[in-house]
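If your schedule permits, I should be very grateful for your opinion on a structural question. I have a record of one protein: its chain in single-letter code and its fold written as C-alpha cells. Would you kindly read the sequence against the C-alpha cells and tell me how you understand this chain to fold? Thank you for your consideration; the sequence and its C-alpha cells are set out here.


***
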Amino acid sequence: MINLKTSILSLCFTTIFTISGTALFGQAKFGLKAGVNFAKQKIRPERTIIPSSNTSFNLQAFADIKILEDISIRPGLSITGKGNRLKHIEFVNATTNLIYLEIPLNAVIKLPIRRLGKFYTGGGLYTAYGLTGKIKGEGFEVGVYGNNNLFNEKGLYNRPDLGLNFLGGFELKNGLLVNIEYELGMINTFRSDAVQPGFTAKNRALSISLGVLL
C-alpha cells in the first residue's frame, strides 16, 4: 500500500526541482488563480445519508512549463475547500467544511484562437493533505465532534487524499485565465475506526476560477 504522505512529499520535491530547472532556461511562466468550489462527497452506502454540494473556495499558485509548442506541464500548490451538505435521519442540513493543502500536476494542450489567445484542456493527478475541518448542524455541532478538527486523531477523516484532475479554459493574450476544473477523489477519506463498517467517502469538486499568468 502506497504511503500517501511519502508520495505528497516526493511530488513536492519533484515539482520544485522541475520548476526551478525549467525556469533557468526561460520555459516557465508563473501564475495565480482563485475562485469558487462546488464540493461534494460520494458517500456509500446512501441508505441514511443524502449528500449535496457545499460552496467553498480555491486559491492556487502554479507554473506553466512549456515542453512542446502547444503542450505544457502545470504543477501547483493550492489551498482548497471541500466537503458537503448532508441530510440524515438524525440531523438536518449538516454542513461539512474541509480545508486541504493540495499539489496538482497536470498536462495541458493549448489550441490557438485567432486574436483572442488559446483554449486549453488537460488533466492529471492531485495529492492533498487535510489541514482543518468542521461540521455544523442542528443538534450536531455540540455532539461527538463538537468544535474539534475533523482531521485530528479522534476525527472523522483521514488527512491524505489522492485523485484525478480534469481541466479546461481560456488563456487570453493579456495573460488572464478563465479556468474550469473537476477533481475526482479516488480514496476513502473516512477513518475506518470513526464510522460504521462499509461506509466510505470520496471527494468531488467542481471549480471555477479566474487567474493570471505573470
